[in-house]
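Morning run. Coffee first, then this:
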Amino acid sequence: MKKHKFLVVLLAVLVALCMAFGLAGCDEKPDETGKNPPITDPSGGDQDNQGNQGGTQKPDDGEQGGTQKPDDGEQGGSQKPDDSEQGGTQKPDDGEQGGTQKPDDSEQGGSPAPHVHSYGEWKVETPATHLKEGVERQYCECGEYKEQSIPKLTEHTYGDWQEVEPATHLKEGVRRQYCECGEYQEQSIPKLTEHTYGDWQVETPATHLKEGVERQYCECGEYNEKSIPKVEGHTFGEWRVTKESTCKEAGIKERECACGEKETETLPLAGHDFENMTCKFCGIQASLGLHYTLIHGYEEYAVSDIGECKDTDLIITNNYQGKPVTAIGDKAFYQCARLTSINIPDSVTSIGGNAFYGCSNLKEVHISDLATWCKINFGNIYSNPLSYAQHLFMDGEEVTQLKIPNSVTSIGRYAFLGCRGLVSVTIDGGVTEIGEAAFRLCAKLTSVNLIYGQ
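And here it is:
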């Protein structure tokens, strides 16, 4: 009997030791929780419950002896920090971060936060009328917008008042406001209390003999009148030519004052007027043998080259075969070194490039109309024979004191280039433009006078 009790006690001690060192039930599989199943006492008693254990005990989740495994409530010894109270090194939560923090979505060093539209006030894009709806929009600073319609108006939309008929002292005026549909509102403008006079009009011009008269008229026929003071000196009318100039005889022009006084002036000599290559007035012969070419729709002629002409004093006709000669062509007299003088008619309006290049023996250029000479279109510096001749003659006399007439408004380029005979130039107030190199190389030119107000 004593032997039997001893064996029972020894077995219990061995079981307790196995449990303490994890040897109990080593031949059995753990359950799903990772724990071994309890060992049943051979005597029928439960020796491994979760309450109190004899010998070395395996701690349960309630009370722990010796080395304890901390639970989620109270921790002994080395504790695993929970989310509410942290000891030692803490893992930061999303609210309060200790140590190195993990940035949230609002503060990141990487991609920016997504854009959220922020719209401003509504703005009218198209105003509404009674014919159609309008449009208004709200804009975000990024350019996106919201749009909504504005209902049609229930009435016409009229513009500003417009005067249709002005009022006078005889009748009322009319003004209207128009809608875009064509409808309008109309109002009358009250009559004026006084006459409505127009601009002053000269009825009788003043002279040196008597005062003039000017009036302002009202539409009713009434008018205001005032006198124009007498003028000093004669008041002449327009010039009229009473005798035409020829190449031999000067013409005459005159104008008359209201008092009967007349003023006359002598006209300059005209150029030669050729008929069948002979001047009708002086009988001089134009140079024969020159070649002519039809230009400008076969209505005009240009001198194209020297042809068979042997003259050294060249006279160009102003018309050829019944048509005017208006041009001298490019290189027309190129390298004609035998030429000593040339007479250019006032019908010529253009001279082509290098027309007189190489005419090194030219000494005189004869013209009959200074105003026409100023208008000639020279192609280049060798288009003007003055570049070699250096002396200009008009009506047989050399031009040394040049006076540009009032009828001239522009002096063409190269017009007097190389004219070494010029000493003085007087330019009237009518001239508004002087072309390139118009007076270049005029070595003796010492005086230039500009006259304004005439």
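Residues 23-103 have pLDDT under 50 and may be disordered. Good start to the day.
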